Amino acid sequence: xxxxxxxxxxxxxxPEGLLKAFQKRIDNExxxxxxxxxxxxxxxxxxxxxxxxxxSEIVGQLPxxxxxxxxxxxxxxMILLAKVQDEAGHGLYIxxxxxxxxxxxxxxxxxxxxxxxxxxxxxxYPTPSWADMGAIGWLVDGAAIMNQVPLCRASxxxxxRSMIRICKEESFHQRQGYDIMTTLARGSxxxxxxxxxxxxxxxxxxxxMFGPSDKDSKHSVQSMQWKIKRFSNDDLRQKFVDVTVPxxxxxxxxxxxxxxxxxxxxxxxxxxxxxxxxFINVIKGNGPCNKERLRARQKAHDEGEWVRKAxxxxxxxxxDAA
Length: 322
Ligand code: BYC
Hints:
Layout: H1 16-27, H2 40-59, H3 61-65, H4 74-99, H5 105-113, H6 131-148, H7 157-185, H8 189-208, H9 220-225, H10 233-251, E1 261-263, E2 268-270, H11 276-286, H12 290-303, H13 305-321
Antiparallel strand pairs: 1-2
The structure holds benzoyl coenzyme A.
């Protein structure tokens, strides 16, 4: 029975009738809204995934923020600045959507800064070259779109709705990344080399963004039954490889995988084994930039304290005046 082992907030069994009615609503493609009854495990899994998603948007500003002051032209600088601002917006929409599940923004921030909550592994890699801005837009936003378009149909209404605008903006981000890569790939030998080097460094980490392989993904089965996730991690990863390989060919760049080969029978590209030890190491906090990223977030939090205090005083004054 699917409901076996699902516990309510007090650790008792969830009522069978309510669980059945809930699953029926999901199967009928009805959206679940904040005031509706939901199993405690559904609420918790959404808080986990959505808060980690929001944290990823915010931490994800850091690798690109690194290049705003050094963008090669004014136009590129304006575009990058706008992209990084969009990511702050995405974080805010998803934090707000997560708050509808009964967790505060303060608690989510505490979980991020204490290392209790994860954020996407991809943002723990350094961005030493301008070409990395191209690779992030092309590959990282490309992978993000592949994962997030199905989330526009997630069963939880506020999450699904926040994803619609985010996906529109992510497509623009992906195209700006590909545009940077196109310019570099058509440029001097040194520029082509930069583009290839960025692809070499970001390819495998981009594939890791989709999460562990299906056999090791502990949340997928339940999340797919609840239609939070619509596709498995491996299925989305395969789709990403299939659309990205021709894009690399068009750029004249080589994907750093000797096992990459079109498989006529499957109608998909076969690709090499991901280094899962590296992935686990990064999500445990030991990637190249994990500590630096959390230090930057802690600093921003500390330095923003006066803003939070001023906002509180302002709100109190408004209430007093009302
Ligand atoms: N990195 O059972 P699984 C962006 C964790 S931001 C770190 O398959 P699930 C952008 C997973 O949390 C993109 N951890 O989990 C921003 C779980 O650990 P816990 C962010 C990962 O949730 C700026 C454990 O591994 N996108 O677009 O069913 C600039 C087992 O995994 C990762 C989202 O967050 C990872 N890559 O599936 C540019 C999308 N993968 O929590 C771009 C929303 C797995 O039990 N999230 N883990 O401790 C999802 O779709 C799903 O959460 C995932 C994982 C597919 C990522």
